[in-house]
Amino acid sequence: MMRIVHLSDLHFGAHDPALIAPLIDAVGRARPDLTVISGDFAQRGTRPQWQQAEAFLNALPGPQLSIPGNHDIPHYNPLLRAFAPYARFRRATGGPDEPVWRNPRVVVAGINTADRWQWMRGKVSTPHIEGLGRAFEGAGNRHRIAVMHHPLEHAAVTVDPLMRGADDLMQALPGMGVRLVLSGHIHVSHIAPFRDDPGILFVQNGTSLSTRLRGEANVFLLLELEGQNLRVTRHYATPRGFVAAAPESWFLEGGVWLHAAPRAARAQLPR
Ligand SMILES: [Fe+2]
Ligand SMILES: [Fe+2]
Asked: How far is the CA of 134 from the centre of ligand 2 (A)?
């Protein structure tokens, strides 16, 4: 059993400070093998915001894999923005902006879809795709999980364009054996197979700490992966701390992700 906590869109500087301690506590109780943080650590990429983010990361238990989001690029410092947009990210997270984490069960690889010049929209280019391919080489029968801030698909109908290069990456993922993609950015959680490829599960997290909510409470995800089965549990912020909602179970069958009917619904199915 592999346990992954997925945090996203912390937005230090536009966060709810009352949620920091409950979130650290809840992540600790989830006993993750790995915590993935899928970008937007800071609101404007300023030094004080990154200092708060770093203190938070230092308080989390266990290994972490972090990738930048569009808000992590320094907003008010044109020199840093142009020449070292991820220096503060690297200092605070202690890792590269395209990290890879491996254990005997999984290979998790992140790409940096934030872009100085495509600030909101994000971008995937050929080097990203080639880098992901290299990260998953030799993964054998381990699960291959790709992490990126911007989503590869919009969960709901929208006029916003997808990030540049999303289609190219979507087409490349099956060849890499990727079955799971973790994203953020939208501030609404969404878990479903991709419409264009139901063999890959799209796990989009909401925001774990930001005050900019889009109709869903602050949330983090716990992913429990065992063989071809995945259980995802949303943990929502409440006045009593982060509380687990009913888990969703998914399983891979015939190369396609299927949603296991909740026990109550299954009991009502005709026999
Ligand atoms: Fe965000
Ligand atoms: Fe974002």
From this structure: 26
Question: Phi, psi at residue 35, to the nearest 5°?
Answer: -110, 125
Number of domains in the chain: 1
Under 8 Å between Cβ of 146 and 182: yes
Task: For residue 200, give the CATH number of its domain.
Answer: 3.60.21.10
| Ligand approaching nearest to the C-alpha of 211 | 1
Task: List, as ranges, residues with CB under 5 A of the ion ligand 1.
Answer: 9, 40
Rounded distance from Cα 268 to ligand 2 centre (Å): 41
pLDDT digits 0-9 by tens, 166-216: 999 999 999 999 999 999 999 999 999 999 999 999 999 999 999 999 999
The first and second tokens of residue 173, run together, are 């993922």
186 CA distance to ligand 1 centroid (A)?
6
The whole domain housing 85 covers 2-267
pTM given for the model: 0.95
CA distance 35 to 64: 5
